[in-house]
Amino acid sequence: MQSYHSISAEVYNLDKPIGSSFGDVEYYSQRLAHVKGKILEPAVGTGRILIPLLERGMTIEGFDLSEEMLVYCRDNLKKAKQEANIFHENMETFQAAQLYEAIIIPAGTFLLITDDKEAYQILTNLYNHLELNGRLILDIFLQPDFREGSSRYRTFTNSQGEIITLQATQSEINYINQTTTTHHRYDKWREGNCIDSEFETFTLKWYGINEFKRLLMQVGFKDIVISSDYCYQQYPTDRNQTITFEAVK
Known about the structure:
Layout: H1 6-15, H2 24-31, E1 38-42, H3 50-55, E2 59-64, H4 67-80, E3 86-88, E4 100-105, H5 116-128, E5 130-141, E6 151-157, E7 163-174, E8 179-190, E9 193-205, H6 209-219, E10 222-228, E11 242-248
């Protein structure tokens, strides 16, 4: 699973600040409202989901593979005057003595896991860290508009007045492995001079709905509910919708 680095983590924090939502913050808040035990968010990122859940009184902790993302997460926690156990870990090898009542992976983050064997092992590991009748909730999405060779440019300005430019080029679609690869070129500018650059290969997996449901069932999950666009039990009807799975141990 790939990890966000220095400039890409900074851009994520600028582009998706705490308080921003695609409907997922409200949805996860609603689906977790009755959870009394502890919640885990692997790939916690900058805390965009975790902090609003903390503010709603939930007990949640998280980890991430990217140290750079965790720096922003801890800073965002301080700004929000919230506390949580945040640590560096890998979803595949993560081990804890405790079990969780719920584990969440919002925003399609699971699609960063492009190896089928690794995906199965991670889901198994998460299953083993759930309490009996605990729930896994995660999002996936399809990528129907991917066009090899197409590019887009975006510009961001940080608090120091530095400009960050991002060129994202859709490089390759692999129908056999069900992956897309996009190349991200980041350049940071100060007073007209480029002071830092970063290149990132960003690969995402896609799954068919029934394919992913079967994967969850192979791991041992039951009572699987499939929703779309953060409307609970509204089955997907469009290729551009966000698809949310909720599965019980």
